[in-house]
Design brief:
By secondary structure, the chain is of the alpha+beta class. It has 31 helices and 16 strands. The strands form four sheets. Strands 1, 2, 4, 7, 9 and 12 form a six-stranded antiparallel beta sheet that branches. A six-stranded antiparallel beta sheet has the order 6-5-8-3-10-11, with no helix packed on it. Strands 13-14 form a two-stranded antiparallel ribbon. A hairpin with a 5-residue loop joins strand 5 (about 95-100) and strand 6 (about 110-115). Helix 2 (about 15-40) packs parallel to helix 31 and helix 4 packs antiparallel against helix 8. The longest helix has 28 residues, at about 835-865.
């Protein structure tokens, strides 16, 4: 009679694992090539554009042979030019001639001829130049458009109604037109780089899938090691496909990591300046840590190119270089940023550039998560497939390969859960834990508790561990552990708690503050002043208006009137500077400096009376020269016009006027002279940066507080129901990773379904379920996991403004830390049992690797389609 066990072993023995791995690799590479041919190759001509003026609120008809011209400044190369066109009647026919010349020398640089039959109205029509124009900083160009019609229909081009901010007016046949042509410049093409990037990412993903097939069939790689390799390999691919700033809220996590690195660098620096406490509204990076292309969370193919091209850059900035930015951090808890902050600090020490520092910070988080996740798979006595599946979800890898604090938090939650399950329900639960295992268990629990307070119930699972396993003084150890967890959670999150508890009271207080205006004494605004401060054509009524009321708009208009001899500044410019003052992108003193001490005016002051007169009219709306303030004018002899200017804005009356407007006057900029265009560019850059930051509206300050919920139970229930109905698909997607980046990159639903099927397969219990939690142990595990989920929902509810229709900010990823525990204890166990755990693990890993290949390809195609 044959040996049945030997026969079964021979049947189970896989054949030719290397061959199957090669077949997998060939098939996936072939799929990559076919997808490239069908979907990527047509996109190789994608260009990167910048609008010179995007305002096309008006239009002008061009007759046959008429030439419309626009002068503009551009720093980059010019590959193509787009113009906004309208069709006043039927489609015109003929040719449209475009000529680009140097505005200063008149030299022809490039030209293009387009066929009017293909013009689509109400959008930019791009005309490629016959040769590339090499750009240089500040170079001025003249764009000329001339139609040559073949029928009676005409063409109109779009432009702004009035000259756009900081742009030049346009002309038609040499006659000026009050407007700026809507022009878009293409200055970069992606070209063959897209092919290389796509095929490299697909190739490495195919290699990982082939390696998984070989590892499963050969059984030479244990599951924990396979999980570690796949997490690191796939995580690195995610880090390239969705570069820094692409993960949810990653910009705030980057700010916190870099600020932490700057604080360490400052601590070890010889500089006497000590950084100390940094509020969450302020961030620090090195002076060279700026890259607008990378810092845009909306990933494009050009983000890929910028990331890879700058991956190995260095900087001459010293390691303790620092630059303050008005950008938000997440909170004051540095615990979950130690790994990423340390990696950034290492980049500082080796003078690595901004991109390498970003890459190192992400890699540190990824390696930490991979180590903790694989350790969890190793130590958990059951449900290894569950931990492996959750660790390899696209959302998990996307977070793990980012600066997000969720990367170490997820790893800590997985490791702690696995250790608790082993200690409470493992095969050796009748023996005391080894000291090292006990230390790791307690440390991971203590570290995860203050990470996010909503997961604090998870740390309480230690109570399930029998006292025997904890050794002597088990009750004391449990009590001390719980006390330490709660203390750390409260201490390290005190800022967040205080902010929430004080938010509503602060909002209510702000609504009771009445706007006040200073009592003004009657002044003779029509008195005669010196000729030097008066514009060429004085307007006494206008002067009276801009001096009468203390408003920011009047202050800006006084700057133009008294400081630039301009009676009618464009309203767009006035609004621009008013907004800059309100948002504190510029101080009144620095703005006044750009008017009174710009290159054209800085050397025009002959004595102290000149600057005193103009500065006082601008800041105080009165002429201190008339009052005979000789002592103030005399400061000119000591420090020139700049000192008189400082004296004026330091006067108590000046400080009071701006305090009434909610502003501080500020101090002078070190740059002398200060060009107004330079200042405007800096303000626009600050506004662009702030556009990516969170802004709180006053109406959003009244939220679903506990008291409000108790008084409005029905409204709260309806809010939760509407959230489930309207956002249910979002929660399902963001749990497994069907919606990535800033939830602007959606995968096909087929991949989402496949991921949920893999999770279901991973949760199917094995044939031997003796170790699974049962009875009261299972109940307490389920309650802890569900309580964490409820706290996450409650946290979003407490931050939801009462005028919202659905929950604010709830995302499926908030349930990831407890997802393994939920799958293990909440699913029914009368499902089909898995007869062979090892075989099932291999099937699961193979399925995950293949699905991840498809998810990465889908993600790249979604980015390319933007």
């Amino acid at each position: 009679m044959p040996d049945v066990r030997r026969t079964n072993k021979l049947i189970r023995k896989p054949g030719k694992p290397l061959l199957w791995a090669v077949v997998t690799l060939v098939v996936l590479v072939a799929v990559s090539l076919l997808v490239w041919l069908a979907m990527v190759r047509p996109e190789l001509g994608k260009g990167r554009s910048q609008t010179i003026s995007d305002d096309y609120s008006a239009s002008t008809i061009l007759a046959d042979g008429q030439t419309a011209s626009q002068i503009f400044t551009f720093d980059e190369d010019l590959l193509a030019i787009g113009v906004e066109f309208y069709l006043p009647g039927d489609q015109p026919s003929g040719e449209l001639e475009l000529v680009l010349t140097d505005a200063d020398t008149g030299e022809e640089l490039a030209r293009s001829t387009g066929v009017m039959d293909y013009i689509v109205p109400d959008q930019y029509t791009v005309l490629g130049l016959d040769r590339e124009v090499q750009g240089s900083a500040g170079r001025r160009y003249c764009l000329s458009l001339t139609p040559h019609y073949a029928n009676g229909n005409l063409l109109a081009f779009g432009h702004s109604s009035g000259v756009a901010l900081w742009q030049d007016p346009m002309t038609v046949d040499g006659s000026p037109v009050d407007g700026t042509m809507a022009v878009q410049i293409t200055y970069q093409r992606i070209g063959g780089y897209l092919t290389r990037f796509f095929l490299l990412i697909c190739g490495f993903a195919a290699l990982l899938a082939a390696f998984t097939v070989w590892a499963v069939l050969s059984r030479k790689v244990r599951l924990p090691r396979l999980v570690f390799v796949l997490v690191v390999g796939l995580g690195i691919l995610y880090s390239f496909v969705l570069p820094p700033y692409a993960a949810p809220d990653e910009k705030y996590h980057i700010n916190q990591s870099f600020t932490l690195a700057c604080r360490w660098a400052n601590f070890f620096s010889d500089d006497e300046w000590q950084m100390g406490h940094v509020p969450t509204t302020t961030s620090f990076r090195r002076e060279t840590d700026v890259n607008p292309t990378l810092q845009d969370e909306n990933t494009t193919v050009f983000t890929w190119e910028e990331f890879t091209d700058t991956l190995f850059t260095t900087t001459d900035a010293p390691y303790d270089s620092h630059q303050e930015y008005a950008e938000l951090q997440t909170d004051q808890n540095p615990l979950l940023y130690l790994a990423s902050g340390a990696a950034v600090f290492v980049a500082y020490l080796f003078h690595l550039g901004f991109t390498p520092a970003l890459a190192l910070g992400r890699l540190a988080n990824l390696l930490l998560f991979a180590a903790l996740a694989s350790y969890a798979v190793k130590v958990v006595p059951f449900g290894k497939r569950v931990f492996a599946a959750v660790a390899l979800l696209p959302m998990t890898l996307h977070l793990a390969a980012s600066f997000s604090r969720d990367a170490p938090l997820l790893g800590l939650c997985f490791a702690f859960t696995a250790l608790v399950l082993d200690a409470a329900f493992g095969a050796d639960r009748a023996k005391a834990l080894r000291p090292t295992r006990l230390a790791v268990l307690l440390i991971t629990g203590v570290l995860l508790a203050p990470g996010k307070m909503v997961y604090l119930p998870l740390a309480a699972l230690l109570l399930l561990v029998p006292n025997l396993r904890l050794g002597r003084h088990a009750k004391v150890k449990k009590a001390g552990y719980l006390a330490l967890c709660v203390a750390l959670a409260l201490v390290l999150n005190s800022g967040m708690l205080e902010g929430f508890l004080g938010s509503n009271s602060a909002a209510e207080e702000s609504t009771t503050v009445a706007a006040t205006t200073a009592d003004t004494t009657a002044m003779d605004f029509l008195s005669v002043r010196g000729e030097k401060a008066r514009p060429a054509e004085p307007d006494q009524q206008y002067e009276w208006v801009i001096r009468e009321d203390n408003t920011l708009e009047n202050f800006v208009r006084r700057l133009y009137y008294f400081g630039a001899d301009e009676r009618n500044p464009a309203q767009s410019e006035v609004d621009f500077w008013v907004q800059a003052l309100e948002e504190k992108d510029v101080t009144p003193v620095v703005l006044g400096q750009a008017f009174l001490f710009n290159p054209d005016r800085i050397n025009t002051y002959q004595d102290g009376w000149d600057i005193l007169e103009q500065a006082s009219l601008i800041f105080l709306a009165q002429d201190l020269k008339e009052a005979g303030n000789e002592a103030l004018a005399a400061y000119y002899d000591e420090g020139g016009a700049a000192l008189v200017y400082k004296v004026v804005y330091s006067l108590d009356e000046c400080q009071t006027r701006f305090a009434e407007l909610g502003l501080e006057t500020g101090v002078m900029d070190d740059r002398m002279p200060l060009d107004r265009d330079t200042l405007a560019a800096e303000v626009q850059a600050a506004q662009t940066t702030r556009a990516t930051q969170s802004v709180t509206d006053e109406a959003d300050s009244v939220t679903y507080t506990p008291g409000y919920i108790l008084r409005h139970l029905s409204d709260t229930v309806l809010l939760l129901v509407r959230s489930a109905v309207e956002n249910g698909d979002h929660y399902l997607r963001t749990l497994v990773g069907g919606s990535l980046s800033y939830y602007t990159l959606d995968l096909a639903w087929g991949w989402v379904v496949a991921l949920y099927l893999l999770l279901f397969f991973a949760a199917l219990p094995a044939q031997d379920t003796r170790l699974l939690p049962d009875g009261s142990g299972r109940l307490w595990c389920a309650l802890a996991a569900l309580l964490c989920c409820l706290l996450a929902v409650a946290g979003c509810l407490l931050w939801t403004p009462t005028h919202y229709d659905t929950l604010y900010g709830l995302q499926g990823r908030y349930f990831l830390p407890v997802l393994p525990l939920l799958l293990l204890v909440c699913l029914p166990r009368k499902l089909a049992h898995i007869p062979d755990e090892e075989k099932a693990s291999g099937q699961l890993m193979t399925g995950l690797a293949l699905v991840q290949f498809g998810v990465l390809m889908n993600s790249m195609l979604a980015v390319i389609a933007r």
